[in-house]
Design goal:
The complex is a heterotrimer of chains A (about 325), B (about 400) and C (about 220). Chain A has about 325 residues and is an alpha/beta fold. In chain A, about 40% of the residues lie in helices and about 10% in strands. Chain A folds into 2 domains: about 140 residues, 3-Layer(aba) Sandwich (Rossmann fold), CATH 3.40.50; about 110 residues, Nitrogenase molybdenum iron protein domain (Rossmann fold, 3-Layer(aba) Sandwich). In chain A, helix 5 runs parallel beside helix 9. Chain B is built from 11 helices and 16 strands. In chain B, helix 1 packs across helix 2 and helix 3 crosses helix 9. The radius of gyration of chain B is 31 Å and the shape is elongated. Classes of the chains: A alpha/beta (about 325), B alpha+beta (about 400), C alpha/beta (about 220).
Chain lengths: ~325, ~400, ~220
């Protein structure tokens, strides 16, 4: 029979041994949960920085991709600044398609996953047009001055647009090799449309020859270069009445160069259009399509633009 | 058997001081080499695991150990700096994903790790709260940093000046905490993660200030030459990046010239990794490439050699202690001679008396061994991380 | 009860020599052993208990020739049949009172400690007036109490022979009488033989017979109860 004193000692000893045994057997601290593997069956999640890239990506990817361009429809994507939550949405995409040419100023101050980011202009960097008239600054006499920048509406040159699309195709195939044939088929169809667009622009350009034209805003550099247009640019906005000095500059331009066709990004307000008409000038609209068109898609908007351009020189369509 | 154990136990409890000392001595004899083995083994395993999980490191030529420790463990010693164009070069080669690292500055004693979002995917780090950094000036905290400093998403954290006496040096930047990582039980828990461009802002390579083209900034203009403006030193620079002044932040010069401490290169496949390594084996190559696993293995080989010596020394000391413990037992037997004679006189069986004495010894040994096992278990749970923190702090 | 024949005993060192030609002690006898220091009183008890072995001669206790047994058998016989009480009590300081009383049952496989034995131990403690101190360590007891514990230990196995070596040497008169009363009561009630070494001549009258160690030089002696 164990006495009371015996029981106490045995109990304490047992507790001690159990505690020690548990301490020795306790598992190591757990590690972070491994991320889930991407679902190969789900559409590739793609985010773009402008509408043309979204259009090209959707044409190439079809239902195998889910392409998002989250900027509001009434904002110029080049100067759009997404809120942090939107940037986080970009971070979580399978692919982020950048335009290059220092387009989308917000990218320089954002954190994006480089491994999933594609610069679609990587194949055309030597063809980018630098902007000559940017304001730059530096610090101190020997300090570096900031870069001037590039014109960025490369998609208005169908040849460059094809290169953007080719970069998108390469990125899609690398991400989903098993869908390569479908992607290539989509690219081929898109390329054919862009080649046809190019052909129509070319025919129009040949028809207007050296007819001087005036662009309302300096966003048609690539179009001008591709088709050898005789063009100069103003700095007018379609919804802002120019001041008198701007009207005078227009008059000087017209006097010096001739040509009474103003090509706008969007329909000018009636007051501007009326004053132009009263001075003998005509307006046509060739949308830049940086953002989603009000109706139709990129190709439809370009077709409408070509149709409007044909008024210059009263060119008829020759199928 | 029960009587034997009971008698032995009562003797040990009665002489609890002596028993405790003997048990502790046995515990130390067993624990010291065992604990050291566990510590070294675990530390080695952790170091090796993290190094093994990092395929390739590219950095400026110099100490491979320093480059590895800084890149993997955010050691306070900054290696020779490389240029960001190394990361651009690797990315353009399409041979590997390039994750830049710039580990140089600190915030309240914790290393600021300048990198990009890819780092979190690579290390499989997950957020426990908030979101990842989205724009300049935002940061994500490791779990231990958030806990130690009592910070959470919405808080702010100021970077530390590199040198309090260098007035023209790096200015503190007030960073906004957007997220806290879940514990990963490694060096990432004790780091502050920012976009690498934020690190360059801390360094002063990027900054934000008033628009010099605006009339309000006239006092900050040194000269104008057409559309080129040169600012003077009095132009006010922001030390916090907000939604209102974010657009004013910019960088001068080419990113490719900007400093980094290393590039984590994750090859697309083995062949790409070999090709990439081959490109750096040229003596004229501007940078070095290394496999962290090999560097750590070499480092550990040295540590393990030292460990062997230490363990041998411990075993020698332990043997001496064991001899002393045996001497204590023998001396106590001498002191108990009268007790033993009494037991034998009244007719106690020699075998049973011997069994009681042996059981006393066994109980002390077992208790010492159990305590040592428990301590070794605690060491296995907590020791390696504590030592790693001590070594790397 | 005890028979010693032609016994010769001496230690390896020294000149001590003990010769007992013939000694008989009957069962139930109470015998006092007296003699000057160094005369071999304790040695005689050790020989009777089988703790020491003679160079020559035989010792029989309770019909068993213990000089013919091996060490293990002698121990088993001793612990089951002979109760020993010492002048210095010889208790284990790290055991409680009860555990000291139960000691013989813990240190040999020949005896089995069970509930009956425990109850007997508690009863013995009650008889000597220490039942309220069973869980105490013996170091907290007075000399008288300690000797009573030692006596209980000696009696727990219900021995046929009690050998007490100056059991009252360190006690005051009250405790001396108390211990002796207990020993004599047990001897009487159990019919056990009691052999006690004592220096106290005042106690000799309580014993039925006296063995003077000086007599072992020459004459045989027979002691009857």
């Amino acid at each position: 029979m164990i006495t009371t004193a015996d029981r106490g000692d045995v109990f304490r000893a047992s507790v001690l041994l159990v505690v020690l045994a548990l301490a020795g057997c306790a598992p190591d601290g757990g590690s972070a949960m491994p991320p889930g593997e991407p679902d190969a069956a789900a559409p590739l999640s793609v985010y773009t920085v402008n509408y043309p890239l979204q259009y090209f990506a959707q044409r190439i990817g079809g239902d195998r991709v889910n392409v998002v361009f989250p900027a509001p429809a009434d904002i110029d994507p080049a100067f759009w600044r997404p809120v942090p939550d939107t940037i986080v949405a970009y971070q979580q995409a399978d692919l982020i398609l950048l335009h290059g040419a220092e387009y989308a100023k917000w990218i320089k101050s954002a954190s994006l996953p480089a491994a999933r980011t594609v610069d679609t202009s990587v194949g055309i960097r030597d063809q980018l047009i630098p902007i000559e008239d940017a304001v730059t600054h530096g610090h101190g006499p020997a300090g570096e001055h900031s870069h001037q920048g590039y014109a960025f509406t490369t998609w208005l040159d169908p040849g460059l647009a094809v290169e953007h699309a080719r970069a998108i195709l390469d990125a899609f195939v690398e991400a989903r090799p098993q869908d390569g044939p479908a992607f290539r088929a989509g690219f081929t169809a898109l390329e054919a449309d862009l080649v046809e667009l190019d052909r129509q622009f070319e025919r129009w350009a040949q028809a207007v020859a050296d007819t001087p034209v005036i662009f309302s805003h300096p966003v048609y550099q690539y179009l001008t270069r591709r088709y050898g247009l005789n063009a100069v640019s103003l700095h007018w906005e379609p919804n802002e009445m120019p001041d008198e000095s701007q009207w005078r500059r227009l008059e000087v331009l017209i006097h010096d160069r001739g040509g009474r066709w103003i090509i706008w990004e969007d329909h000018p307000v009636e007051a501007i259009a009326e004053r132009l008409r009263s001075s003998g000038s005509q307006s046509v609209v060739l949308p830049t399509c940086a953002n989603t068109p009000h109706e139709g898609d990129y190709l439809a908007a370009m077709q409408r633009g070509i149709t409007a351009l044909k008024r210059i020189g009263d060119v008829r369509t020759v199928p | 058997m029960r009587d034997v154990v009971y008698m032995a136990w009562r003797y040990l409890v009665y002489n609890r001081v002596k028993t405790t000392i003997l048990v502790l001595a046995i515990m130390l004899i067993v624990y010291l080499p065992a604990g050291l083995n566990v510590l070294v083994g675990q530390s080695a395993a952790r170091l090796t695991a993290r190094a093994g999980a990092t395929p390739l490191l590219v950095g400026a030529k110099g100490s491979a150990v320093e480059l590895t420790l800084n890149s993997l463990y955010f050691d306070s010693g900054t290696p020779e700096l490389a240029r960001y164009r190394e990361a651009e070069r690797i990315a353009e080669s399409r041979l590997a994903d390039a994750i830049p690292l710039y580990v140089r500055y600190r915030a309240r004693g914790y290393p600021i790790v300048g990198t990009n979002i890819d780092y979190f995917d690579f290390r499989r780090l997950r957020l426990a709260a908030g979101r990842s950094m989205a724009v300049l000036g935002e940061c994500v905290l490791g779990a231990a940093v958030a806990k130690d400093l009592g910070l959470e998403p919405g808080s702010s954290l100021v970077s530390s000046p590199e040198n309090v006496f260098d007035l023209a040096g790096v200015y503190p930047l007030k960073m906004h905490v957007t997220g806290v990582l879940a514990p990963s039980f490694g060096p990432d828990d004790r780091a502050v993660f920012v976009d690498i461009k934020t690190t360059w802002i801390i360094e002063g390579l990027g900054h934000g200030h008033q628009d010099l083209d605006e009339p309000a900034a006239a006092s900050g203009v040194l000269s104008r030459d057409g559309r080129r403006i040169t600012a003077n030193a009095s132009v006010v620079q922001y030390n916090e990046i907000t939604a209102e002044n974010l657009d004013s932040f910019h960088f001068h010069g080419d990113f490719g010239d900007y400093p980094i401490s290393a590039v984590l290169a994750v090859p697309r496949d083995d062949r790409a990794g070999v090709i990439l390594q081959g490109r750096y084996e040229n003596a004229d190559a501007p940078a070095q490439i290394l496999r962290p696993g090999i560097v750590i293995d070499d480092l550990l080989a040295t540590v393990l050699t030292i460990r062997s010596f230490v363990v041998a020394a411990m075993l020698i000391v332990g043997s001496g202690t064991l001899v002393t413990v045996a001497l204590v037992f023998l001396l106590s037997l001498r002191l108990r001679r009268r007790e033993l004679e009494t037991l034998l006189k009244i007719g106690g069986a020699r075998s049973r008396v011997a069994a009681v004495l042996c059981t006393e010894v066994v109980v002390v040994l077992v208790l010492g061994a159990v305590l040592a096992a428990g301590l070794t278990g605690v060491t296995r749970r907590l020791g390696a991380e504590a030592i790693q923190r001590f070594i790397l702090s | 009860m005890i028979r010693i024949n032609d016994l010769q005993f001496g230690y390896r060192e020294g000149d001590f020599s003990l010769r007992v030609a013939d000694l008989r002690i009957d069962k139930g006898a109470t015998v006092a052993v007296i003699g000057p220091s160094g005369s071999g009183k304790t040695t005689l008890l050790n020989l009777m208990a089988g703790i020491a072995l003679p160079r020559a001669g035989r010792v029989s206790t309770n019909g068993v020739e213990i000089t013919a047994l091996d060490d293990r058998a002698r121990r088993e016989f001793r612990i089951a049949n002979i109760g020993l009480v010492f002048q210095e009590f010889e208790l284990l300081e790290y055991l409680s009172v009860l555990d000291n009383i139960l000691l013989p049952y813990r240190i040999t496989p020949a005896l089995h400690l069970d509930r009956v034995v425990r109850e007997r131990a508690e009863d013995l403690a009650r008889q000597v007036g220490i039942a309220d101190k069973l869980v105490r360590l013996v170091k907290r007891l007075s000399h008288g109490e300690r000797q009573r514990v030692a006596v209980c230990r000696a009696l727990l196995t219900q021995p046929a022979l009690l050998l007490a070596d100056e059991p009252t040497g360190n006690l005051d008169p009250v405790n001396r009488d108390r211990v002796l009363d207990f020993l004599f009561d047990y001897s009487r009630s159990a019919g056990a033989t009691l052999v006690t070494v004592t220096h106290d001549r005042d106690l000799l009258g309580r014993f039925a017979s006296v063995i003077d160690m000086k007599s072992f030089q020459d004459l045989p002696e027979e002691v009857a109860s």
